[in-house]
């Protein structure tokens, strides 16, 4: 029979160290997940804000008959006027690009018939 004096304590310390590393990794992954969910919610809210401001502006323009391009969003760019011909009939179009400053996604484009 061999004597293993003090070996049980070393094994216990190593087991505790492995357990703590695993617990730390689990905590960090949960923190990362919560942060990702929060950022996703903010991105969704921002996209909805752009859509709402655009729809509100377009309804105001329709109801007032205005042709000014000034929505409640951060940035509006009037694109060059264009025209298309369908069955020999030319239709003039006005294009606008709406973009919210903090939103990194593709901007929204509106095409109006003049």
List how many beta strands DSSP finds: 4
Strand content of the residues, in percent? Answer: 15-25%
Q: Name the helix and strand elements from N-terminus to C-terminus, one letter apiece.
A: HEEEE
Mean pLDDT across every amino acid position: 78
What composes the largest sheet?
4 strands, antiparallel
**What is the CA–CA distance across the termini?**
99 Å
Q: Supply Rg.
A: 30 Å
What does this structure look like?
This protein is an alpha+beta fold and 114 residues long. It contains one helix and four strands; from the N terminus they run αββββ. It has one helix spanning 7-64; strands at 75-78, 82-86, 89-99, 108-113. Strands 1, 2, 3 and 4 form a four-stranded antiparallel sheet that branches. Strand 3 and strand 4 (108-113) form a beta hairpin. It is rod-shaped, with a radius of gyration of 30 Å. The termini are far apart. The model is unreliable at 69-73 (pLDDT under 50).
Which helices and strands, and how do they pair?
Blueprint: H1 7-64, E1 75-78, E2 82-86, E3 89-99, E4 108-113
Antiparallel strand pairs: 1-3, 2-3, 3-4
């Amino acid at each position: 029979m061999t004597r293993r004096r003090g070996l049980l304590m070393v094994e216990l310390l190593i087991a505790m160290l492995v357990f703590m590393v695993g617990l730390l990794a689990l905590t960090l992954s949960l923190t990362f997940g919560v942060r990702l969910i929060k950022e996703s919610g903010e991105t969704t809210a921002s996209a909805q804000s752009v859509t709402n401001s655009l729809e509100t502006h377009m309804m105001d323009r329709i109801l007032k008959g205005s042709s000014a391009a000034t929505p409640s969003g951060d940035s509006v760019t009037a694109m060059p006027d264009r025209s298309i011909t369908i069955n020999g009939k030319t239709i003039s179009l006005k294009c606008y690009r709406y973009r919210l400053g903090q939103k990194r996604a593709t901007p929204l484009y509106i095409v109006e018939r003049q």
